[in-house]
Design goal:
- The chain has one domain.
- Helices cover 26% and strands 24% of the residues.
- The strands form 7 sheets. It has an 8-stranded mixed sheet, sandwiched between helices.
- α3 packs across α4 and α5 packs parallel to α6.
- By secondary structure, it is α+β, with helices and mostly antiparallel strands.
- The protein is globular, with a radius of gyration of 26 Å.
């Protein structure tokens, strides 16, 4: 029988159509799967949440009541003994599992009450905590704590478990252990609860102590601008000179043992807290007296990058010995440098204190556009558990708190010191070639005599870089042959202008 010469091409066309339909169906399935994954990953964890607090301390000033303060600490050290459940350390690179515990990690809480308003502050030995987790903590706090506002800060320690997801075994697996994350959240709640129960009449003194950056901190990105000084709230019992606790703010990355360290440690933050409480004790010798009480370390403007670099030699003033190579001893030397400046001031019984410190609180939710491909991909890949309030839009927050003569600007992420203290440049080679946007500097806008900046407060969004210094494309800043570090771990170039505008608005008197 004769064959039909048109049959084969017809069958081929039918086959091609069928293959094309199958491919289209498969593509549709892939698109739907990826789309569904994106929708789930980017979902808002707290839909409708928006922070707006306006508490004026004028009422407290007009009707002064005795100041109260309470401190507490709760251990958040992970278990590193199970080889089948590694603890991934954050801050340097993937696949850095903890091998031992050198010293414990803590959630340290302070609660301050002026008789009208109650403020809670927590400092975590952690790389960072997301705003979603902060909101969860607030929603789970017992109502009888009567906390008007909470500031939950991370020290940004690089020898602590990953709480963000970027430092797991490899680039495609998260480093966050859900059980450890739950432990941290529960521990913050417990610390605030215990600090509230510990409230008792107090007196407070505010200190600002100059500290030269040389021999302590290096700025590894131009322009060279530091936030080097110590600021302290020192609380004593109302009926004597007994120290209840202190809140110490400084600006430096706690990464002193550096990237080869695999031991859990609270770095110089822990050594400093111990020195303030117990005194300086080395090999059983008491080299300086302590204050007693519970002490909190809060980090400040550490962007830029403020760090005790391996090239920075640090002298321990109590041992009269210089440490340059990264080590726990070098971290202790950093702490001793700070303690040698703090202890004489805080041990001075002639320092004026006050039993009245009116509290004002202004706080706002802020929405920031996300312009970082890696941060966009991380939730989809399951690395970063953080929601969006809209397409490529993150929820974060800023707060301005005053406590008597002191003020606190609570800012998310690692803000560059030039935004805080001044010195932003129209950097040659910058992507935007514009005059500085984030002016005047934040401290110039803040009220009060002693002006604290709490970085990594209520969120970690990475580096907060002045827009005129933003640089992702060649030519690079200041004629550099290669790209500078910072932008890869930043939400985007609009972050700093938005945050500066938000805190500036809070710094304006409410009457304006």
């Amino acid at each position: 029988m004769a064959s039909n010469p048109t049959a084969c091409p017809a069958r081929a066309r039918v086959m091609l159509r069928r293959v094309g339909i199958v491919i289209l169906i498969l593509l549709a399935v892939v698109v739907l799967a990826v789309g569904g994954r994106c929708i789930y990953a980017y979902r808002d964890r707290h839909p409708g949440y928006s922070l707006k607090i306006e508490i004026n301390g004028a009422a407290s000033a007009a009707d002064p009541k005795p100041l109260q303060a309470g401190f507490a600490r709760v251990k958040i050290t992970p278990d590193v003994s199970n080889p089948n459940r590694p603890v991934w350390l954050a801050g340097f690179s993937q696949h850095r599992a903890a091998t031992a515990v050198h010293d414990d990690l803590w959630a340290i809480a302070a609660v301050i009450d002026d008789g009208h308003t109650r403020l809670g502050i927590v400092a975590l030995d952690a790389i960072g905590i997301f705003n979603d987790d902060v909101i969860e903590i607030r929603q789970r706090l017992p109502s009888d704590l009567k906390l008007a506002h909470t500031l939950i800060c991370a020290t940004h320690n690089h020898s602590t478990p990953d709480l963000m997801g970027l430092w797991g075994p490899d680039p495609f697996h998260t480093g966050v252990d859900p059980e450890y994350r739950r432990l941290v959240i529960v521990s913050v709640i417990k610390a605030l609860t215990e600090a509230t129960k510990a409230l008792q009449p107090a007196r407070v003194a505010f200190h600002e102590i100059q500290v030269p950056a040389d021999g302590l901190v290096a700025d590894t990105r131009k322009p060279i601008v530091f936030d080097p000084d110590l600021r302290v709230m020192h609380f004593k019992r109302a009926d004597g000179d007994q120290t209840m606790g202190s809140i110490v703010a400084w600006a430096n990355h706690p990464e002193t043992p550096w990237g080869n360290n695999t031991e859990i440690t609270s770095d110089f933050c822990g050594y400093l807290r111990d020195a303030l409480e117990k005194g300086v004790i080395i090999e059983g010798r008491q080299l300086a007296p302590g204050l007693g009480g519970i002490h909190m370390y809060v980090n400040g403007a550490i962007g830029g990058l403020m760090t005790t670099h391996p090239s920075t030699a640090v002298r321990d003033p109590y041992l009269d010995r210089v440490f340059q190579q990264p080590s726990h001893e070098k971290a202790r030397a950093v702490a001793h440098q700070l303690a040698s400046r703090l202890l004489p001031r805080l041990l001075d019984t002639n320092v004026q204190t006050t039993p009245h410190a009116p509290i004002s609180i202004r706080a706002r939710t802020v929405l920031i556009p996300l312009d970082n491909i890696a941060f966009m991909a991380a939730p989809v890949l399951g690395l970063m558990d953080r929601g969006h309030t809209g397409w490529n839009r993150l929820r974060t927050e800023v707060s301005l708190v005053t406590v008597g003569d002191a003020s606190i600007a609570a800012l998310p992420g690692e803000i560059y010191p030039e935004i805080v203290n001044g010195g932003i440049e129209r950097a040659p080679g910058g992507d935007f070639d514009i005059d500085p946007v984030e002016v005047p500097p934040i401290r110039q806008l803040m009220p009060g005599r002693v002006k604290f900046v709490f970085g990594l407060a209520n969120d970690e969004i990475g580096y907060v870089i002045p827009k005129s210094e933003w640089d992702r494309k060649p030519p690079y800043l200041y004629g550099s042959a290669r790209g500078v570090y910072g932008e890869v771990n930043s939400v985007g170039p609009e972050t700093a202008p938005i945050l500066h505008k938000a805190i500036a608005e809070l710094c304006r008197p409410a009457s304006e």
